[in-house]
Amino acid sequence: xxxxxxxxxxxxxxxxxxxxxxxxxxxxxxxxxxxxxxxxxxxxxxxxxxxxxxxxxxxxxxxxxxxxxxxxxxxxxxxxxxxxxxxxxxxxxxxxxxxxxxxxxxxxxxxxxx
Amino acid sequence: xxxxxxxxxxxxxxxxxxxxxxxxxxxxxxxxxxxxxxxxxxxxxxxxxxxxxxxxxxxxxxxxxxxxxxxxxxxxxxxxxxxxxxxxxxxxxxxxxxxxxxxxxxxxxxxxxx
Amino acid sequence: xxxxxxxxxxxxxxxxxxxxxxxxxxxxxxxxxxxxxxxxxxxxxxxxxxxxxxxxxxxxxxxxxxxxxxxxxxxxxxxxxxxxxxxxxxxxxxxxxxxxxxxxxxxxxxxxxx
Lengths: 114, 114, 114
Hints:
Chains A, B, C: Keywords: Cytokine, Isomerase, Secreted. By secondary structure, chain A is of the alpha/beta class.
């Protein structure tokens, strides 16, 4: 039951979006027990983003929401993978990418909570 | 002080949006102490969403942010109600709907925190 | 490593957005250890928002995501400042503004977590 939402201030073509989707689907398995089988993704492109007061560079803000919890080292590996994906696919410098984690206690699907 | 944000990958007509708004306003009272009197809602339609690697089905991601906390059973009832609302109003299959909860400790309104 | 996301149901001109950006960059320093040097901002305008079942007034929902934690009094000062900013810049009544805080334990940047 993970959800990853990506905000970027560049235009996402369908091709790029599908490619990032597939790569995030692989990367999520770095968190034990998680896989693309339960992964939901959201993409927001051409967002109005600023980093350090500046909006002239390429920027990404990625939120990873996970049911339950995982180890710090699992999150660390996922951050590395996510930064690589957005750098490779969209030429966003890694030091312009934030990856923020939220561990969720109550999560519903199909009419009931897990 | 709840906030419910709904992301869907279908088009929301004004009529549907108003109807969902009213139903969410009723459903929130399943959480003790909460009512439409303090409820803020956000709707994002035509979102770019994927579930299990697929974007060809109707999908919803609903986030419920609550000041303080409530019982697991209250959240369970709210999940059931929310899934029913999005299924009835937008024909989104319940197994394509995530409802994610966030319990919030610090919440401001009108210039000060509660 | 703060991130502030602002949803408003009015149109944001570039001028207003830049002005709010600068003011939020100053306000964040009310939280000890935080400054515009690490601040990322997101703006979403013309959002579909309702408060108390009504969408006819000007409304803002501001989320402040902070790595680590801070005192309640720091958050209180920040809420006051944020409500002032949105009231002054966009004529949104302060009692139509929610400011929601999230304290984050796992936060990545530049390929690794802090």
